[in-house]
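Data deposition worksheet. Section B asks for the primary sequence of the deposited chain exactly as it was used as input, without tags or linkers unless they were present during the calculation. Section C holds the resulting structure in C-alpha cell form. Section D is free text for depositor observations; keep each observation to a single sentence. Incomplete worksheets are returned to the depositor.
Section A, Depositor: J.P.
Section B:
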Amino acid sequence: MKYNPNEIEAKWQKYWLENETFKAENNSEKPKYYVLDMFPYPSGAGLHVGHPLGYIASDVYSRYKRHQGFNVLHPMGYDSFGLPAEQYAIQTGQRPEDTTSVNIDGGTDKEGNKIAGYRKQLDKIGFSFDWSREVRTSNPDYYKHTQWIFIQLFNSWYNKNSDKAEDISTLVSIFSTEGNTNVNAVCDENIEAFSANEWNAFAKEQQEKILLQYRLTYLAETEVNWCPGLGTVLANDEIVNGVSERGGFTVVRKKMTQWSMRISAYAERLLQGLNAIDWSESIKESQRNWIGKSVGATVSFKVESQKSNVESEQQYIDVFTTRPDTIFGVTFMTLAPEHELVSQITTPEQKAEVETYIEKTSKRSERERMADVKTISGVFTGAYAEHPFTKEPIPVWIGDYVLAGYGTGAVMAVPCGDERDYAFANFFKDQNGMQEIKNIFANVDISEVAYGSKDNVIIANSDFLNGLNYKEATKKAIEELEKLNLGKGKTNYRLRDAVFSRQRYWGEPFPVYYVNGLPQMIDAKHLPIILPEVEKYLPTEEGLPPLGNALVWAWDSVQSSVVSTQLVDNATIFPLELNTMPGWAGSSWYWMRYMDAHNEKEFASKDALAYWESVDLYIGGSEHATGHLLYSRFWNKFLKDKGFAPTEEPFKKLINQGMILGMSAFVYGFGVGVKNVNPDLGIIKPKRYVISRTSYLSAIKGEYDDVITNIVDKELEKYKVIGNGNVEWDLELTAFTPIHVDVSLVNSSDELDVEAFKNWRSDFKDFEFILDKDKYIVGREIEKMSKSKYNVVTPDDICNEYGADTLRLYEMFLGPLEQAKPWNTAGISGVFGFLKKLCRLYFDDNGLIVTNDEPTKDSLKSLHKTIKKVAEDIEGFSFNTSVSQFMICVNELSTQNCHSRAILEPLAIVISPYAPHIAEELWSLLGNTGSIATVDFPIFEPAHLVESSKEYPVSFNGKMRFTMVLPLDLTKEQIEEIVMKDERTIKQLEGRTPNKVIIVPGKIINLVG
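Section C:
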C-alpha cells in the first residue's frame, strides 16, 4: 500500500461534497464560530500559490474549531462585479457575465482560452467551505439586497443629537413643525435656514432638493478622480502613483455630478470603534490617519474685492486650522487649485498663469500630491484677503499641496510654524505677492527651519496673545474670532464622503429613476432592477455611461417595470440612472448574506443575524485597510442604526496574511551601438546578445569585462569588413537590460532551457547567448508574484504532483502568517517526504500495521507534546511552528518504532486541520466511520510530560566525567549513596575521599577534592 495523494484527495473531496460535511446550521446547541476570508475577485488568471495562503490559514482554524465542538460557519463566494471583467469584455467582444461565469465555474471562453475555474481550484485544495451558502455579487438575487440597502441610505439622515441614522420621515416631521434652525444634522454646508411655514409652503420639488442636502446618500457635484482610459471615476485606493491600479491609465481631477455616501457622518464612531476590535495596530493606525481627526477652529478671511475681480457679493475664504494660536503669523493663504473661489478671485493679469497651473495639477492624483513633499509649486492669484484682526492684506496663492477634498480646501499659511508653508514661502521669496516670514514665537530661531512644536511655545508679536502658551493662546484666539463672527472652535475630520458612482456597465444598477432631474427610489417590492443587455460596453457617442446604450432602460411608474427608452415621456415613464454602483457596494455587507444566503425576502433574517452576530475571525490583505474595511464598518454601523445589524462592528478579530513572493528569473540583454558610420558603405543591424549576470553587474558600473569587450570587437569587425574601419563603440547606445523569463523554462539549478526561451517569444529568436560550460545561469530576484513577471506558480501544478495536503503544509511552513515570504518550489519535496513518513507509521506495502499495543512513555510524551504545541500554535496563529512540531513528532515516533493505535489515532486528529485528506484516509483505515472533521480534538494530559527521571551530569572538581539516569524523587542522601557506590566514581577517586559532595536534585552532582 502506497501513499497516493491524487486518489486519496479526490475520494475525500467527493465525500465532503456529497455529505455536506461542512454545512453550518443557523440553529445549534453548539457554540457558534464565524470564520471569513476576504471576498475574492474571480479573474481568468485563476489562483497562484500566493492566493490560498490566507484561505489555508482560515481553513486550519475552522477545522480546529469544529474539533473543539463549535458550529463553524466558513463560507465562500465571489465579488464578481468590477472593472476587470468589463475591460476583458471590451477587448474580446464577450459578455462580462459570461466571462465571469467561466472564471468561476471553469471551461473555455469564446477566445478559446481554457479557464481552470476558481471553484475547482479551491475544491482541489480541500477547503472546508460551506458551499451551500455561496454568493456572487453579480447575481440579481444578491444585488437586489444591495439595491435595497442603497434605498435605506437614501431614506435616512444622520441626527447628531441621537448620534445615529434615522428615517428621513423624522426629519420631514421636524421641518414641518419647527423648520430647520434647530436641526443638528450631518448635511451639506451653507444650508439656508427656513421656518415650518416656509417648508410647508415649498413646492414638492423644492422640498426634495432640500432633503437631498441631508440624505446619507445624495447627488452632488464633486471633485473626482476621472480616468479617461477606463471611462470611469476611481476611488483614491484604486490609484497608484498617479495612474489607475487597473491598466496604468492616466487619472485627472474633474468635477462631475455623482452619487456620494456620507461616511463622514460616522467619522467619530469609526474612530472610537477601533478601540473595541482585535485588529493589528498598523491597520488601526492606517484608519485613524485616514479618518484624520483634528481639533482647532474655523476662520473666515474676507476677500478684498478692490484687489480682485469680485464686484458683487462679498467673498470669504474659510479655513480650518489646528493652530489658531498662530493666527498673527499668517503671511499668505493657499487655495487648492480646484477651489471654487479660484476662478472668482483671480485677477485678469494672473488668469492665464493660474489656468495653466490648474490644468497641470489636474493630472496628479490626491495621493500623489499628498505624498510628494519635495516638489514645491504654486501660482499667485493676484487677489488678497483681509486678516481678521490686523486688517492687513494677505496674498492668496494656489498650490497643489492643498487638496479641495480635505478641510475647506484652503489654508492660512504660517511659515514660522509649518515646514511646508516655510518651504513654500522661501521658494517664492521676493516674488509678487509673497510677504516676508513673520516670527510669532518668543525666543525661537526660525532662520533655518520652522518651529512646528506646541511644546514650550510662548506667543510673541501677536497683539492680545503675547506672552500666552499654546493652550491659552488657542482659547483666547477662538474667543476673539467668535466675537467678530469670523470663526469658532471646531473638530474636523480628514475623512471625505465616498463617491458612489461608476460610469461603467458591469456593476449594480441603481434603483433610481428621475423626475424633472430629481432622483426617485423604486419601491423595494419591485427589486431587483436587473442589468440590461447592451450591444457595447463603451460610453455612448454623447459621452454617457454604457447604460446609455441600453434599448430597454426606462421606468414605467404605472406598471412598475423597466420598459423601452423610446417610451420616455417624463409623465409616467422616466429615465433610469445610467451610472452603476462601485465595486465596494456588494462587498460592504456580504458577510451578513452568508448568514442566510437563500432568503428571498430580506438580506438575512433577524434570527440568523442574531445567531451569528458578527465575524469572529476575518483573514485578508492589509491593502484593504482604508477601502473595503472602512466601507464595511460604515455600512454595518448604518444597518445597526436602522435595526437590521445586531452589532456595531462587523469583524471582531482581523489578521492580515503576508504576501507570498515569486522567485523571478532573468536573462540580461546586451546591444551594441556604433557611431562614425559612413552610410554609403551600409549599416549593419547589431546582433542582440545575452550576457551573464556577473557581466551585467559589472557593465552597469561602467566596468566592461572580457565578455563584453569581445562582443564589441566582434560587432566592430563587421564594419571593417564592409570597408568602414573608422567606427567606434557608442556607449550611449549600449543597452543592458534585464529580461523576465518564464520560470517554467528554468530548472532547479537555475539553468535556462535556451532553445525553449528562443521559441517562447518571436522577438527573442535571434538572441545570441554567451554560455559558460554550455549553460546559461539565470539571475534570480524576489518580487511580487504576477503574470507580467512570468513568476507565477499555480496550486494546480503542485496539487497534481505532490497533493493538496503537501501544498497546505508547505504554505503554512513557509514562515509566520503575517510576514511576506518568498516561494521556493524546491522545499515542496521535503514536506511531501514528511507525509510519506507519516503514512509509514500506519501502513506498509502489505497494508495496515497499527497495533493495539500499550504505548510507551516516550510515545505518549511525543504525542502530548504535539497536542499541546499544535493547540497553542493554532490559537496563536503560529501555523509554521505547528508543522515543525509534526515533523519532530513523526521522527520521534519512527525512531520509537511506534505503531500503537492509542498514539496514532489521536495523531491523525491533530494533523487533520493541516492535512485533512490524509487524516481522513488514516481515520478510515483505522476502522472509524464518518468524517474525522468533527471528532473531538485530543485532550492534552500534562502528566505525560512530567519527567520521572533525570540524566545527571556527574562532575569531579567541576569537570563532567560521565552521566547517570536517576529517579527524580530521590533525596540528596539517596543520590549521594548511589553515586559513591558507582564503579565509575570509585575509579575517578582512586581511593580518595572527596572533601565535599555537592548535589542539587534534578540538576547537578559535583564531587570536590
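Section D:
The longest helix spans residues 857-875.
The mean pLDDT is 92.
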